[in-house]
Structure to design on (547 residues):
């Protein structure tokens, strides 16, 4: 059957794998956007820059930190970066929330969008200034080099790891939000923050931590991405446009929706590359337009 | 001075509101309210729609816009406190719109408000008091009937140990049997020593429950009626409330 269409099974599998990888990133990033939007009512346009920051900080930690500190042998390895970098990116997010975003909650959505867009431009501009637009490469950690033979295809170990790691983080986030007491605060706060605060919960602190967490997810995605995508100042801007389309399709603010839609759209993109490559760059946006016409609140969103 | 002071009965003061002004944006809603509630009392805030009763409760919790004046809870000034700290002085709030969270189950709604003082009711006690809630514990908040939502909105603040309850129009829109149940519940809570401020439209429901009634008009207290003066002031109340 594949032969009839002039497609080899290998091509199909490898594009599905690429789709799954991209889908994992879409899922991680749109999840962060959904969590932030739910609690802050802000569309975080800085998300792409924060993802880039994650990748860059991982690269700096691996290659630059030692020389800076005067001991060239020292470096922050991949595994340490996977923990430290999201914390740093999250901490920077907390500073942004405390000093800037906080003042915009009473105003229209549009102001938050403009501010976060401006911050993204500043962060990306700074990195372009320091490092130029050329990409940096980041070595795959030792244990994840090579591939596993699945019989029908070779699966590069690092790619398998990316899928497992991002799905685990997505699932854990979903679980915490939907199934735990802490998550019930978040869900209730998303619905009616004033009442939650009247019950004695420190909602302003919750908002700050939520933003820090959502942004840390972007930083985590950035570290995961460093060894497979080129680390460059515009890497986030390229990706985030598609992620926004994913969020629109899934429904703003829906946790499960953002995860499922992210993965599914990665796969759809992969399949399009196999069957009709010319459309692969636009297929997500075509789907977005259709969804907006048929279900403006998104596939998983609730009509308000 | 104010009507409230001249009528304040003996007892331990739980709440003293003095010269309370509150705004929503530019609209000036409360114009210098004064009233006092002692520990263990049930008082009502009566008035026509739009008089400012809900705003009074919301202002006590810092949920309005700008406020001024003084709100002493157990001897502590709360006018400048952030909302989440006020609750921890032992206040439980049941809002007029009930505020059941649609995306939480009935039981998650019940468990949501954190403990603000010791001595709250246990889950078992609450389910004994409101058996319906136990049956519906796994249902999403948005699937509950109006009566169940009202029970839940009250039940969840009884769990927290709050001893000062702000109940906004709990009898509104409910079937007579449920209103009777709520009346029994308020009596039971009074016996247990709770202090209760009820905003009510339904005077027949509120009259037999309260130690004192405050009538609000245009954001001011215009009449204070202790229980023992109720008969004599009936005409005045009818006139003020238009019932
Ligand atoms: N969120 C709000 N913004 C502006 N005005 C409000 C708001 N809520 C209530 N009001 C106004 O405040 C006044 C008092 O309302 P409220 O306290 O709800 O009255 P009551 O509970 O006695 O019926 C009304 O005139 C109402 O229109
Ligand atoms: Mg009202």
């Amino acid at each position: 059957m594949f032969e009839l269409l002039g497609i080899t099974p290998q091509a199909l599998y490898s594009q599905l794998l690429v789709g799954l990888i991209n889908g994992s990133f879409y899922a991680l990033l749109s999840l962060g956007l959904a969590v932030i939007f739910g609690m802050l009512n802000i569309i975080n346009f800085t998300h792409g820059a924060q993802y880039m920051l994650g990748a860059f900080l991982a690269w700096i930690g691996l290659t630059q930190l030692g020389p800076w500190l005067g001991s060239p042998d020292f470096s922050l390895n991949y595994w340490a970066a996977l923990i430290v970098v999201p914390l740093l990116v999250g901490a920077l997010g907390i500073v942004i929330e405390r000093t800037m975003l906080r003042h915009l909650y009473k105003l229209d959505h549009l102001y938050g969008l403009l501010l976060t867009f401006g911050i993204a431009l500043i962060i990306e501009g700074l990195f372009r200034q320091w490092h130029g637009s050329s990409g940096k490469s980041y070595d795959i950690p030792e244990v994840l080099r090579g591939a596993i033979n699945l019989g029908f295809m070779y699966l590069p170990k690092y790619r398998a790891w990316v899928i497992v790691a991002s799905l685990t983080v997505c699932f854990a986030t979903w679980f915490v939000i939907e199934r735990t007491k802490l998550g019930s605060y978040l869900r209730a706060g998303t619905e009616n923050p004033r009442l939650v605060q009247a019950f004695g919960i420190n909602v302003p602190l919750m908002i700050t931590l939520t933003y820090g967490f959502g942004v840390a997810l972007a930083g985590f995605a950035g570290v995961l991405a460093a060894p497979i995508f080129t680390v460059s100042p515009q890497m986030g801007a390229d990706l985030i446009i598609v992620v926004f389309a994913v969020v629109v399709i899934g429904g703003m603010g829906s946790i499960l929706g953002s995860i499922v839609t992210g993965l599914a759209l990665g796969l759809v993109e992969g399949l399009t590359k196999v069957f009709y490559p010319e459309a692969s760059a636009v297929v997500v946006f075509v789907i977005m337009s259709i969804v907006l016409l048929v279900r403006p609140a998104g596939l998983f969103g609730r009509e308000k | 001075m104010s009507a409230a002071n001249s009528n304040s009965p003996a007892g331990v003061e739980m709440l003293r509101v003095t010269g309370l002004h509150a705004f929503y944006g530019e609209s000036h809603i409360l114009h210098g309210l004064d009233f006092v509630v002692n520990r263990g009392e049930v008082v009502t805030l009566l008035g026509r729609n739009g008089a400012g009763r809900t705003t009074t409760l919301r202002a006590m919790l810092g949920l309005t816009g700008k406020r001024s004046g003084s709100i002493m809870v157990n001897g502590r000034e709360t006018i400048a406190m952030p909302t989440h700290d006020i609750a921890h002085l032992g206040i439980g709030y049941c809002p007029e719109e009930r505020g059941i969270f649609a995306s939480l189950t009935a039981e998650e709604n019940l468990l949501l408000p954190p403990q603000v003082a010791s001595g709250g009711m246990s889950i078992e006690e609450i389910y004994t008091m409101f058996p319906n809630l136990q049956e519906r514990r796994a249902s999403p908040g948005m699937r509950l009937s109006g009566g169940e939502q009202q029970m839940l909105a009250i039940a969840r603040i009884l769990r927290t140990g709050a001893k000062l309850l702000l109940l906004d129009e709990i009898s509104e829109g409910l079937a007579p049997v449920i209103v009777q149940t709520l009346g029994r519940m308020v009596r039971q809570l009074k016996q247990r020593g709770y202090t209760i401020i009820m905003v009510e439209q339904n005077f027949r429901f509120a009259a037999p429950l309260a130690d004192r009634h405050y009538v609000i008009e245009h954001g001011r207290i215009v009449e204070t009626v202790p229980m023992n003066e109720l008969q004599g002031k009936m005409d005045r109340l009818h006139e003020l409330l238009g019932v």
Notes: The longest strand of chain B covers residues 13-24. Chain B touches chain A at residues 61, 63, 82-88, 93, 95, 99, 101-104, 108, 111-114, 116, 157, 160 (CB under 8 Å). The pocket of adenosine-5'-diphosphate (ligand 1) is lined by residues B 24, 27, 29, 47, 49-55 (CB under 6 Å). Residues 176-191 of chain B form the longest helix (16 residues).
